[in-house]
Amino acid sequence: MSLLLAFSIWLIHNLSLKYNDFIQVPVIAHCGLEGHTDVSADRNTVVARCRMRGFDILRLRIFGKASPVDVNFSRMRPLKSSDEVFYVTSDDLQEYAHIIFGENVTLEYFVTDTLFFHFPFETHRRLPVVPVHELEFAPQYAMLGGIRIEPDSVTVYGEPERIGNMDFVFTEPLKVSEIDSDLHGVLKLDKIRKVRFSEDAVRYSISAVRFVEVVRQVPVNVRNLPAGKEMTIYPSSVNATFKCRYPYGPDEAGTVEFFVDYEDFVNSRTGRCVIRNSDLPGGIIDCTVDHQVAECIVAGL
Questions:
Q1: What is the CA radius of gyration of the chain?
Q2: Cα separation of 295 and 274, whole Å?
Q3: Does residue 26 register a pLDDT over 60?
Q4: Cys staple from 107: which of 24, 97, 252, 284, with CB 3.0 to 4.6 Å?
Q5: Same domain assignment for residues 78 and 58
Q6: Beta strand 169-170 pairing with 123-130
Q7: How do residues 29-41 score in pLDDT, each as one tens digit?
Q8: Nearest Cα residue to 280 out of 208, 214, 207
C-alpha cells in the first residue's frame, strides 16, 4: 500500500509538471460561407509544438484523435483551383490555439503550415413548419383556432438533392393531456442529417376554451341553383351539434346556414354532395352534422 501510495503521489506530481511536446488535434471547420455548407465535409489535423502539463498531454493523446475540435473561423480563403475548397494558414490559427489545444497550453509554433477544408455548395428554400402534436383536452374544453407557431416557416439549407423533395419541416412531437388552460412554449425542429435550418426551434401557443354543446335540427338549403331548376335533397334536414363558448349567450347557432352547392352536383358523378355550412360566428368553436353527404336529384329545364 505504501508503494502504491508513493507511486500515485509521484505520478500526480509528474503529470502536474509542464513539458514540451508535439501535439496533433483533428479539427472540423465552421464558417458562414454564402452558398456553401456551414460545416466542413472533412476534418484536418493541426500539429504544433506546445508546452503544457502532463495531464493535458495525456488527455490529448488518448482522447484527442477520437474527438475532433469544432472551430468557428471568422474567415477562410478560397483555393483558386476549386470553388469548394477553402484554407487557413498557420498565422490564422494563432488566435484559435486556445480553442484547439485548451486554455492551459503555451503554443511554441505550428508544424502545420496550412489547413484545407471542403465546403460543398448548397441551396436554400423557405418551407412551412408543421407542428407534430398529440393533444388531449379536459372534458368540455377544446382548442380555439388551432395551434399557432412563430415563425411559421424557416429557411432550409442543404445540398440540392437533399432539400429538393422537401415540402415541410416538422417539429419534435408535443404530447399534452388534460388541457384546460392556454399553453405556450418552445418546440425544437426535427433534425435532418446534412440539412440545417435558419431556426433551431419555434414558439407555439394554444388557446383552450370551455364549451357547451347545443344540438339543433337544421334545414339543408341549396346555393347557386339556376333559374328553372329544382333540386330535391335527402336528407332535407340534419342534426347539427355546435360547440359554443361558455357561457353561451345569444343564440348564434341559429345564424349558421347549412347547404349544398349546385356546382358540386354538376361536378359529381354520383349525384351526392357534401353538406357545407356558412362561416361560424365568434361564439361557436366548431360544429358537426350527423350526415355529411346528401343525395341530390335535379329536375327542370
A1: 34
A2: 9
A3: yes
A4: 97
A5: yes
A6: parallel
A7: 988 787 788 888 8
A8: 214
DSSP structure class, residue 193: T
Range of the domain at 37: 2-118
pLDDT of residue 206: 94
CATH code for the domain in which residue 182 is found? 2.170.120.40
DSSP for residue 15: H
* Residue 130 three-state SS: strand
- pLDDT score, position 63: 61
| Residue 47 to residue 177: CA distance in whole angstroms | 55
Contact 194/157 with Cβ under 8 angstroms? no
How large is the angle between the packed helices 54-63 and 2-16, nearest 10 degrees? 90
Which of these three, 101, 118, 135, is where a domain ends?
Answer: 118
CA–CA dist 216, 277 (Å, integer)? 14
Does residue 79 sit in the same domain as residue 132? Answer: no
Q: Is the peptide bond between 281 and the residue preceding it cis, with omega within 30 degrees of 0?
A: no
* Other beta carbons within 10 Å of 4: 8
CATH of the domain at 279: 2.170.120.30
> d(Cα 215, Cα 49) in Å, to the nearest integer?
83
Cβ-contact 117, 29 below 8 angstroms: yes
Provide the pairing of β-strand 174-179 with 133-137. Answer: parallel
Distance in angstroms (rounded) separating the CA atoms of residues 73 and 91: 13
On whether both 222 and 139 belong to a single domain, the answer is: no
Q: In what order do the strands lie in the sheet with 183-188?
A: 148-150, 201-206, 183-188
User: Does 145 lie in the same domain as 44?
Assistant: no
In this structure, the strands spanning 85-89 and 77-78 are antiparallel
Give the residue with greater pLDDT, 7 vs 96: 96
Q: How many domains is the chain partitioned into structurally?
A: 3
